[in-house]
Design goal:
mainly alpha; rod-shaped
Amino acid sequence: MQSKMTYGLILALLVPFAAAAQSGPEGEPAILQQRLQAIDANPDTAGTAAYERLQARQSLAALATARSNQRAAALQIAQWRVETAELAARTEATRRELTQLERERSALIVEASRQDAVRARQEAERLRIQAQIQTEEAARLRLAAEEEGAARQQAETVLQGVASGEAAKLRAARQRDAELRRREAELLKSLEQP
């Protein structure tokens, strides 16, 4: 939208220049007046360069009352004043646009920072929950290993007087206990790694 406003501003200010090129010195005051009116009519420049526009109007009034021998100098001054008013209006309108763009840029930076902070908090929460789940799983495996160890201890006591067939069951229980311990060690090791 601001690009359209800028193009509109440029076109509104350039149309009088094109008309000036096609007219003679007798039509110049009217063209200068139109150029000033173009600044007033353009919403982007209407409130800009008040002092410069006042000086341009005064120079046009002086041109209208100038004697014929002073007319060329008065016309030159009026042209300079109108050009100064146009330049000042364009400069101020551009400055306003830049200020607006800077505000929008700052707002976008703040919003991006806010979104980054939200994402960082979400990631921290996800990692906290993941660590909690791993801790709970490790505790469950440790408890299972302890229960298995207690069962093995009890089985060893019972099996001390049992025949060789029962000794095979004892070996299997020991192997299972060793496997659980190995799995617990692997899990604890994975928890220690970042």
